[in-house]
Design goal:
2 domains, binds zinc ion, 14 strands, 287 residues, 11 helices, Metallo-beta-lactamase, Chain A
């Protein structure tokens, strides 16, 4: 565990540096507004080493916003992500959304304006798939496809025992509450949670939270499953009572969002996530 370091540059998205003997890897990089903090945190640890690999768990702005700045600092580093993430980052609309959400986040967190960056730098260099293994020398990282949050969601398992779970499994708030985040499919999210549960990692890194204490890890997957089911039931119940999607969203925000989450995630990003989850539940109901 002394080879995995939290190098998060600021609120809103995490970044962890994995220091192998031969190669180094970053798991996600957080938001664009705090890229300089992130880079300075990484440099302090790397010393004479370089950053070889940037692993992205999916293509959302709060996980990949700092990529262009990292590529500027370490031009030889390679961004590794799912095939679908590569496709998304080739779309000008997606790049526009990333830029706009990154700008909003900079305002929310009172940061200076975003550093100028070229959209062409925001891309996946190499596609990775389920089962791929990255060898860092003394450490190896296994890629596990865990869709549900997005189609491109990946989890990363280090040395068969330390799991960076993707957001498809949910996110833990600082209060300990788990938020489901099945934007594309609740069924896929449940499958992804089951995959992680089966791996039964000794150590869990929860997205947007970080390292779980051992005491929180035992019930973690069960609570992730419950969170998905609770949200589904909530949405279906209100829908049966005649609530519109918009009304469900208002109730959902009131019922499920706590103060920690309000501080951590910009309202627009929360709304986008929640709206998609509500749509997903209602769509799945009709199938
Ligand atoms: Zn996301």
């Amino acid at each position: 565990m002394d080879k995995i370091m939290d190098v998060t540059g600021g609120q809103g998205g995490n970044a962890f540096l994995i220091l192998g003997e031969e190669k180094t890897a970053l798991v996600d990089c957080g938001m664009a507004y705090c890229a300089s903090n992130l880079i300075s945190n990484i440099k302090k640890i790397l010393k004479k080493k370089t950053l070889n690999v940037i692993l992205i768990s999916h293509s959302h702005y709060d996980h990949i916003g700092a990529i262009p700045c990292l590529k500027k600092e370490w031009p030889n580093s390679k961004v590794l992500g799912a095939e679908y993430a590569k496709r998304i980052l080739n779309r000008s609309n997606a790049l526009k959304t990333i830029r706009s959400l990154s700008t909003q986040a900079a305002k929310l967190f009172d940061a200076e304006d975003l550093k100028e960056y070229d959209d062409a730098m925001m891309k996946v260099d190499h596609v990775i798939c389920d089962g791929d293994i990255l060898d860092l020398g003394d450490l190896y990282i296994q890629v596990i496809e865990t869709p549900g949050h997005t189609k491109c969601s990946l989890s990363f398992l280090v040395n068969n025992e330390i799991l960076f779970a993707s957001e498809s499994t949910g996110c833990m708030s600082k209060s300990g509450k788990i938020y489901p985040a099945f934007i594309t499919s609740s069924a896929a999210a449940l499958d992804s949670i089951h995959i992680c549960q089966k791996i039964n990692p000794r150590v869990i890194f929860s997205p947007h939270f970080g390292l779980l204490k051992a005491s929180g890890a035992s019930d973690y997957w069960r609570n992730c499953i419950l969170a998905v089911k609770e949200t589904k039931e909530f949405v279906l119940r209100l829908s049966e009572q005649g609530y519109t999607e918009k009304q469900i969203l208002v109730q959902y925000e009131k019922m499920f969002r706590d103060d920690h989450s309000r501080l951590e995630q910009p309202m627009n990003a929360f709304i986008l996530n929640a709206q998609s989850m509500i749509k997903t539940v209602l769509r799945e109901k009709c199938v």
